[in-house]
Amino acid sequence: MISFWRRAAKGKGGMAALPPTGSNCFLSINLLKDHQKPATSCIQIAAQNFSLFYQLCGLLSSPTMLLKSLLSFLLLTGTAVMTAAQQKNLKLLSYNIRNGKGMDNQTDYDRTVAVLKKADPHVMALQEVDSITGRSKGVDVLSLLAEKTGMHGVYGAAINYNGGRYGVGILSGEKPLQHYTVPLPGREEQRVLLVAEFSDYVIFCTHLSLTAEDRLASIAVVNRQAEGFTKPIYLLGDLNAEPSSTFLRELKKSWTLLSDESPTFPAPKPNKCIDYILSRNSQMKNSVAMVIDEPLASDHRPVMVEMEE
């Protein structure tokens, strides 16, 4: 836990002599492992660190060094406790961004970024994302959003479009362990399921067909992919179906709805809910479920949930 940059040497009378330095940089408190502990061990973290600090106090002869070390202890232990607690929360967002084209018919990626940053989720599932198309003027939209938000991005192309590709994407603070795509039915256009596995959970992102039969057929494909994981799985996307639909009733036989059923479309004055977040294998409980009040940046409003254990 405590490592000396310069080892204390035994002085006269068997007392430990600290390195001759005028600052408290003679030691570093390594809390990396503590940062990875769950919130239930926060008290243990503080207790362990205080015990070590108390032992260290016997070595400090300078009041200034004692004060500096005390401040370091409080700062680092507080950081460990806060980080451990934060790891027990998970905030997810689903947003059909319409490739950054707002209700004013202006394509403004900075405006999209502002919406994402303000929501500040751990993971964002995005739909209607262009990659190097004529419509996007050669911009790889997901890569641009990843760069501007400081997140990792993975892309799932559904179709070739306008000289490039068109599909869905996931942005995340944590880098995925793996990601892949699975084709889904879509008679008006091919659809896709993007799967990204993380250390503690799996994210499914999709934008389902406008045709009811295709949506129903997609359930079996999605569920087959889910059967390959024992981790919690979160399904996010524009499902193009309202809460009272046969599709949603069938989907909820194997998935738990996390988002509420407030209207998400069209963005200026939404009158129907077609964007959702659902879970499977998860023991976390909802603390927040909301549709974000954003009437301009896209034709859909973002959906967000926050969960905690």
Task: Count structural domains.
Answer: 2
CATH architecture of the largest domain: 4-Layer Sandwich
- First CA to last CA: what distance? 28 Å
Strand content: 25-35%
Helices and strands: which structural class? alpha+beta
Q: What strand order characterises the main sheet?
A: 7-8-6-5-16-15
Assembly type: single chain
Q: In percent, how helical is the residue content?
A: 25-40%
CATH superfamily caption of the largest domain: Endonuclease/exonuclease/phosphatase
Task: Return the CATH topology of the largest domain.
Answer: Deoxyribonuclease I, Chain A
Strand and helix layout:
Blueprint: E1 2-4, E2 9-10, E3 16-17, E4 27-29, H1 32-35, H2 42-57, H3 63-86, E5 89-96, H4 109-119, E6 123-131, H5 141-149, E7 152-161, E8 164-172, E9 178-184, E10 191-197, E11 202-207, H6 212-226, E12 233-238, H7 246-251, E13 256-257, E14 275-280, E15 285-291, E16 303-308
Parallel strand pairs: 5-6, 11-12
Antiparallel strand pairs: 1-4, 2-3, 5-16, 6-8, 7-8, 9-10, 10-11, 12-14, 13-14, 15-16
Helix pairs in contact: 2-3, 4-5
